[in-house]
From TrEMBL:
UniProt-recorded name of the protein: tripeptidyl-peptidase II
Organism encoding this protein: Botrytis paeoniae
Record field: catalytic activity: Release of an N-terminal tripeptide from a polypeptide
Gene Ontology biological process terms, A to Z: proteolysis
Enzyme Commission code: 3.4.14.10
Top EC group: hydrolase
UniProt-listed PANTHER family: PEPTIDASE S53 DOMAIN-CONTAINING PROTEIN, PROTEASE S8 TRIPEPTIDYL PEPTIDASE I CLN2
Location in the cell: Secreted, Extracellular space
Active site: E309, D313, S526
Signal peptide: 1-19
Pfam families, A to Z: Peptidase_S8, Pro-kuma_activ
Domain Peptidase S53 span(s) in chain numbering: 224-609
Listed GO MF terms: metal ion binding; serine-type endopeptidase activity; tripeptidyl-peptidase activity
């Protein structure tokens, strides 16, 4: 039944529950409301002819069963440990039911959206369609507006959207609707230091091959961290890669970032000469119009710090993990947007684009480093859960997914405001709050390492507790004693029953990076994450060489056995929000997790008796 425009207007006036503007099979009701964070302000209505690539997330048929498999193959005490699932097995478990597909397709056709215009994910749990704001507003019984971030960026969003009641149990999320997620690359979250002399001419090479018996104290300058320092500190310097043809590691680029090959080559020539050839041979996979510009940055790009993150990631991972092959996934989905633009946009929804691509691949890297995050409250619950389920699918297939824990402690002073009730709150970081990823905090110095901070630029390694995801049972033994030790004056600022992070840590202070032909020094958990990822890639190499499967989803192993091979960090805190935040202490803590990896101990643990079973 097609209603008239007048009837449609009358229905809209009803409020929370109204008849569908197109089909009256069941009334429309609000599916989700998510308020904009304080950094976003509405500036006016969205243009009706603005086009959006809409992503419709359907209810997955047997996610509970997938989760059961994931836990079994990730539990070091289970007889199935290490028996990862194939792409087809994962897709069979998450594909929606026929009923879900039929009902959703019927609804779309009733709204004049034809099947030929639809695109599907490999498991058909996501539907994508390019559609105008005018048509989306009818489809979702909502009104879109243009919002501006305090940094000047514009997006088109709606705080609230609706569905016919009979579809509420069949559609989990639709984006972009009410997600104000703004994933931040190094140009915004990494902290550039030594501002007055930040750009230095690349010095003549003073690299000397490591010698037997050198310690971290011999090779490390804590104000200028190099691959040799990291390899020595974390015990990979003497390891010989054995399975480079069977093992891969990966990094992700978003928001126009790329990995400049000439800069990477300059870096490796100076700090890992035997790896220099890899700068022009690592695999770049461009997804949905991602950027792979290999030219020099122009003045605008230099001012924005374009490719700082990308270069840091590729230089760090090759500097530590070589000759393990590297994949760089460079994903579009966040083009520049102005309020009058009429081209399709997926602004700030890059994880969905990347996940759908990578899950369509039959062969995957063993570990993926991700250096992009934002506060959890910028994303609606449904979006966070859907993205987290995508990471669970990767874990089930044997992929370790790592994210930085954030660079503002528990929240930058003056920003710790809930977008629900304006109360003071610690700001947890997403996707670190997803239990299916491993969150990496930052440290600095050696003997001992301490929680990373930098008073010159406000950098503090992040940590905290999710308000979306409950604490998994595998965290209980480590986290409950820590909670009992915290001062009572901060307990109202966080959710003590939420998933706790970070899980581990690594150096995240004063990294040397070559960018635009010059050297810069960078802080951040966005440096710690590729470091930890490269070390774990070498662990996977040792496992494969021994005829064993890759680590896969790390967390159950980490909290049950793996923590024994990490060096505890007991000094410092993840401060912020005008408080001392979460202190480091003996054992797990919300400032440094279980501490930093030591490769020889991890290798011995996973290759030892009961450490890792064969397929």
């Amino acid at each position: 039944m097609v209603t008239s425009i007048a009837t449609f207007a009358a229905f809209l006036a009803v409020g929370l529950v109204s008849s569908s503007p197109i089909k009256a099979r069941t009334p429309y009701a609000v599916k989700e409301t998510h308020y904009p964070p304080p950094q976003w302000q509405r500036v006016g209505p969205a243009r009706s002819n603005h086009m959006i690539n809409l992503q419709i997330g359907l209810k997955q048929g047997q996610f509970d069963e997938l989760e059961r498999h994931l836990y079994e193959v990730s539990d070091p005490d289970h007889h199935r440990y290490g028996q990862h699932l194939s792409a087809d097995e994962v897709n069979d478990l998450v594909k929606p039911s026929d009923e879900t597909h039929n009902l959703v397709h019927e609804w779309l056709q009733d709204n004049k959206i034809e099947p030929a215009s639809l695109e599907y994910s490999p498991a058909k749990d996501w539907i994508k369609v390019t559609i105008s704001i005018e048509d989306i507003e009818t489809l979702l019984d909502t009104e879109y507006s243009t919002y501006q971030h305090e940094d000047g960026e514009y997006i088109v969003r709606t705080p609230e959207w609706s569905l016919p009641l009979h579809l509420h149990d069949h559609i989990e999320t639709i984006q972009p609707t009410n997600s104000f997620f703004k994933p931040r690359p190094v140009a915004k979250t990494m902290k550039k230091i030594n501002e007055a002399a930040e750009y230095q001419a690349l010095a003549p090479s003073n690299y000397k091959p490591p010698t037997v018996g050198q310690t971290a104290a011999d090779v490390c300058n804590v104000s200028s961290v190099t691959p040799l320092c990291l390899r020595t500190l974390y015990g990979t310097v003497d390891y010989k890669v054995q399975a480079a043809g069977k093992n891969k590691m990966a990094l992700t680029d978003y928001l126009g970032e790329s990995n400049n090959r000439s800069d990477t080559k300059l870096f490796l020539e100076q700090y890992r000469p035997e790896a220099a050839s890899a700068a022009y041979s690592f695999d770049v996979q461009v997804i949905a119009g991602g950027n792979n510009d290999q030219g020099q940055e122009n003045a605008t790009e230099l001012s924005a710090g374009k490719d700082l993150e990308g270069n840091l990631d590729s230089e760090t991972m090759l500097g530590i993990g070589y000759p393990t092959p590297l994949i760089a996934y460079t994903t579009g989905g966040s083009p520049p947007f102005t309020p009058d633009e009429q081209t399709p946009t997926d602004t700030n929804e890059p994880y969905l684009v990347w996940l759908q691509y990578v899950l369509s691949q039959k062969n995957l890297p063993g570990v993926v480093s991700n250096s992009y995050q934002d506060t959890e409250q910028t994303v609606p619950y449904s979006y966070a859960v859907s993205v987290c389920k995508g990471f669970a699918q990767l874990g089930a297939r044997g992929v370790s997914v790592l994210f930085g824990s954030g660079d503002n402690g528990v929240g930058a002073d003056g920003t710790c405001i809930s977008n629900v009730d304006n109360s003071t709150t610690f700001l947890a970081m997403f996707p670190s709050t997803c239990p299916y990823v491993t969150s990496v905090g930052g440290t600095k110095f050696i003997n001992p390492e301490v929680v990373a901070t930098d008073a010159r630029n406000g950098y503090v390694s992040g940590g905290g507790f999710s308000r979306y995801f409950p604490r998994p049972s595998w965290q209980d033994a480590a986290v409950k004693p820590y909670l009992a030790s915290l001062p009572k004056n901060i307990t109202s600022f966080f959710n003590a029953t939420g998933r706790a992070f970070p899980d581990i840590a690594a150096q995240g202070y004063a990294y040397i990076t070559v960018w635009n032909g010059t050297t810069v020094h960078l802080d951040g958990t966005s440096a710690a994450t590729p470091t930890a990822s490269a070390i774990l890639a070498l662990i996977n190499d040792a496992l494969i060489a021994a005829g064993k499967p890759t680590l896969g989803w790390l967390n159950p192993w980490l909290y049950k056995k793996g923590y024994k091979a990490f060096t505890d960090v007991t000094v410092g805190s993840s401060s912020g929000c005008g408080t001392n935040g979460f202190p480091a202490t003996t054992g797990w803590d919300a400032a440094s997790g279980f501490g930093t990896p030591y490769f020889p101990k991890i290798k011995n643990l996973v290759l030892g008796s009961g450490g890792h079973s064969k397929n």
